[in-house]
Design goal:
nine-stranded antiparallel beta sheet; 121 residues; 9 strands; globular
Length: 121
């Protein structure tokens, strides 16, 4: 077993699409998906842009205001997640700061209560 400290993952600043206070760090890569740690400083924003693939944002700590193609903002707390479909315009911001985990790519996401792996039954 290895224990990963998300705070120590090397990150790079992103300013594309009018983003501010935003950095990302690659945690893993498969042929189908990217696994990324994201951090937004207090008051930070990830500017509106299209999702390159299905994208899952899980809030690890802090808060997130997320919006999809309709522009309606929804507040997420730790333990909540947002999913955007490929090509969907979306935006994320935070009031107090955010650490999140993003999976982006060809990923099947189960509906609550459904098993992804039939072996889990």
């Amino acid at each position: 077993m290895r224990v990963l400290d998300l705070a120590s993952v090397p990150r790079r600043r992103v300013e594309a699409h009018g983003s501010k206070g935003f950095d990302v760090g690659a945690l893993g890569l498969t042929a189908e998906a990217h696994l990324v740690v994201v951090r937004l400083e207090a008051g930070g924003v990830v500017g509106r842009h299209p999702a390159a693939g299905r994208q899952l944002l899980v809030v690890v700590s802090g808060d997130a205001l997320v919006a999809g193609s309709d522009g309606v903002e929804v507040r997420l707390a730790p333990g909540q997640a947002a999913v955007w479909e490929p090509g969907e315009e979306h935006r994320t911001s935070t009031v107090s700061g955010l650490v999140g985990f993003v999976v982006e790519g060809d990923v099947d996401l189960a509906a609550p209560g459904h098993h992804v792996d039939p072996g889990d039954v």
